[in-house]
Amino acid sequence: MIRCHFARLMGERKLKIADVARDTGINRGTLTRLYYETAERIELEVLDQLCEYFQIDISDLLERVNSDQASG
């Protein structure tokens, strides 16, 4: 399972989805799906924009966890 740390990153910086959407031009629906970890696919350009925006590496945004770790 892939975990997305978008919500944590936003919380640490006290940002709202509207702030990130306005600053990056990424669709609010896309950001909402990332926030709630319901996205089924993500464009590479979106990942690149988010990494640039937060000044992070992709490994800070996405993490692969074993299925048993995901439930706990």
From TrEMBL:
Tell me the superkingdom of the source.
Answer: Bacteria
Q: Show where the HTH cro/C1-type domain sits.
A: 12-61
Q: Which InterPro entries match?
A: Cro/C1-type_HTH, Lambda_DNA-bd_dom_sf
* Gene3D superfamilies named in the record: lambda repressor-like DNA-binding domains
Pfam families the record matches? HTH_26
GO MF term list: DNA binding
Name of this protein: Helix-turn-helix transcriptional regulator
Q: Which organism is it from?
A: Hydrogenophaga crocea
